[in-house]
Design brief:
This protein is α+β, with helices and mostly antiparallel strands. It contains 8 helices and 19 strands.
Length: about 350
């Protein structure tokens, strides 16, 4: 529950109707019974709310901790139990308020309620802490991806590590990588070795990441991806209309023909290529001139065509330091993300 003016968006309403609004006190619970979506709102504020909502509170406040019930109403056990008092299939699932109020709930004495709520409040604070750190690092990384690489038409970035002053050079990507033609013709790899490309996690094992293999009946025509190879998604993704480019930082595997595989030359730091194309706008500007429009106006770039675009790279030493910087940044981002998820998953389960 938040104040309307703090919602960040305009919500039109007739102020003359507010006389019929319901009063909400700190510790109250508010729920829209006509379109329940899995949670009761706990209010920390005093105010009023639309008659479309149902407001309820403990009959005996001294016997109940509202924060205990806040966590209880968010528990999977409680939400699953609502199936006995929900009905309808339009606009979500509605709740019968009469049946809900007749639901039996087991609960401990108020002292134990308070202790339990303190535990979950502490866990929520930890989750929020890591979420905020994660969000700040993601924003910081986005800013660095813009400032540590030259803008279009320029040869030096806005921010640079000390000791580097030479202008960056414009060359074709094909001067740094070549198309890999290695296929799984001998059957050395099987469906358990199929890799996928994730925009957030990079190149991952398909079964480990998605829980199953989406490979066809045969993987003999799949491309081999060695550690350090570069994989490009030739098909566009929702997050990036021209696909993504990632380096295989894990064990070797195979990818379907939807991907293009490249082998880096000795004159490039492989991880730098991934970092270079992580900014979507830079990826789009690079790929757009290379696009072939299909019959249905689909955007496709062949493996060979993708190497004809021009990139602006620094000398050999600078890419290494830039790559290491972003590797450390990615490790921090992953750390806080994993801690947040780990705390949430390992929290005591209501039974």
């Amino acid at each position: 529950m938040i104040y309307r003016d703090d919602s960040g968006r305009y919500i039109g309403h007739d102020e003359s109707n507010e006389i019929g609004y319901k009063r909400v006190l700190p510790g109250d619970f508010v729920v829209h019974l006509r379109s329940f979506q899995g949670g009761f709102a706990h209010s920390q504020y005093e105010g009023i709310t639309s008659p479309a909502y149902t407001v309820f509170r403990a009959k005996e406040p001294t016997s109940h901790s509202d924060r205990f019930w806040k966590h209880w109403f968010m528990s999977e056990h409680f939400i699953a139990g609502l199936s006995t008092v929900t009905y309808g299939i339009r606009d979500g699932r509605s709740i019968s308020v009469d049946e809900f109020m007749n639901t039996f709930l087991a609960f401990p004495a108020v002292e134990e309620q308070a202790a339990i709520s303190r535990l979950f409040d502490y866990l929520d604070d930890l989750i929020t802490l890591h979420q905020r750190k994660y969000d700040k690092l993601v924003i910081f990384k986005k800013s660095m991806l813009e400032k540590m690489f030259p803008k279009d038409g320029e040869s030096v970035p806005e921010i640079r590590f000390a000791g580097f002053t030479d202008p960056w050079e414009q060359r074709k990507l094909g001067d740094y990588v070549v198309v890999s033609t290695a296929k799984n013709a001998d059957g050395r790899f099987n469906k358990e070795d199929v890799l996928s490309v994730s925009g957030e996690y990079g190149i991952v094992n398909q079964i480990a990441f998605q829980g199953r293999s989406f490979a066809g009946s045969s993987v003999l025509n799949y491309g081999i991806v060695n550690t350090g190879d570069i994989v490009y998604t030739k098909s566009p993704l929702n997050s990036n209309p021209y696909g993504i480019i990632k380096v295989n930082k894990g064990i070797p595997g195979i990818v379907s023909t939807l991907y293009a595989v490249y082998r880096p030359q000795d004159n490039v730091h492989t991880n730098f290529i991934q970092v270079y194309f992580e900014q979507h706008e830079r990826m789009n500007n690079y790929m757009h001139p290379l696009v072939n429009k299909g019959a249905k106006n689909d955007m496709k770039v062949t493996a060979e065509n993708a190497l004809k675009g021009v990139v602006t790279f620094p000398s050999r030493e600078e890419p290494v330091i830039i790559s290491e910087f972003f590797d450390r940044l990615d490790s921090l981002i992953t750390l806080h993300q994993r801690k947040r998820l780990s705390i949430r998953q390992r929290s005591p389960v209501w039974s």
